[in-house]
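Supplementary Text 2. Reproducibility record for the structural model of the 87-residue chain.

All settings were left at their defaults, and a single model was retained for analysis rather than an ensemble. We include the record here because the model underlies the residue-level annotations in Supplementary Table 4.
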Amino acid sequence: MLSIFKRIKEFIDAQMRKLMEKQEAWLEKLVKTLEQKEKERSLREEEWRKQEAARIEKEHKFWAKERAWIEARDSALMDALKNITGK
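Retained model, structure tokens:
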């Protein structure tokens, strides 16, 4: 009678070990997947930051050129007005 209980216990222990090994493998796979997804997200975010910085720099240059053109135009208009009024 005792050996039946012992064999049942061994069987249950073996099944529990198998279950725990499967859970550990699944958890390891899950962690690796999460780490990979986080790495991909981080790379995408970094790429987005670079693109945003480039876009802002381009916009800054555009407005600097616009400002220079407006200043040159205003200066030319003021010179023309001074010549017309003789002052």
